[in-house]
Amino acid sequence: MDRTRYRFRSLWTLPAPPAAVYAALERAEDYPRWWPQVREVRRIDDTAGVVRIRSFIPYDLTFTAREARRDPAAGVLEIAMSGDLDGWARWTVVPHGTGSLARYEQEVEVHKPLLRRFATVGRPFFRANHWLMMRAGRRGLAARLEDGRGAV
User: Fold this and answer.
1) What is the rounded distance in angstroms from the CA atom of residue 101 to the CA atom of residue 16?
2) Cβ(26)–Cβ(70) below 8 Å
3) Is 64 contained in some domain?
4) Is 92 a domain residue?
């Protein structure tokens, strides 16, 4: 097993219809406004940008995100990632009760030297770090949607 490869899955229940959640998620440049660990999103062009993240572990990860799929009818947003992380990430937004369920899936390989060096002993910490980041993201987006700022 390659300890530098990760597969993540998160489920977010959110208090807004799928179209509003999708609209918020497709505006990656707004993520730093509601997701504390997404420190910066800098657009390169209409389908790509540079993203810098940092969660509980005080270590930045920077990668280029390129649009791979944008399908509002299916509720799917997918990116290809290259840089400190290589791989892909996908949001799928579907109706759930009176709101939405946003499923996040990600498969990446870490290229950042320090994270590769500590891949075996640090793996549980890196996974916990990701979990904390996703929890904060869900809370931030839920608050934004409840305040009616999701469509802004």
Assistant:
1) 9
2) yes
3) yes
4) yes
Tens of pLDDT, residue by residue over 49-64, are 999 999 988 889 999 9
- Give 15-51 as a DSSP string: SS-HHHHHHHHH-GGGHHHH-TTEEEEEEEETTEEEE
Query: Domain containing 142 — which CATH number?
Result: 3.30.530.20
Contact predicate 77/26, CB 8 Å: yes
C-alpha to C-alpha distances, 136 to 37, 40, 133, 140, 149, nearest whole angstrom: 8, 16, 5, 6, 17
Residue 99's domain comprises 5-146
Tell me the whole-structure pTM to 2 decimals. 0.92
pLDDT in tens, 101-115: 999 999 999 888 877
- For the chain, give the number of residues: 152
Judge whether 17 lies within some domain. yes
Token readout for 122 is 């640090």
User: For the chain, what is the domain count?
Assistant: 1
151 within a domain of the structure (yes/no): no
For residues 129 and 123, the model is more confident at 129
Per-residue pLDDT for 137 more than 60? yes
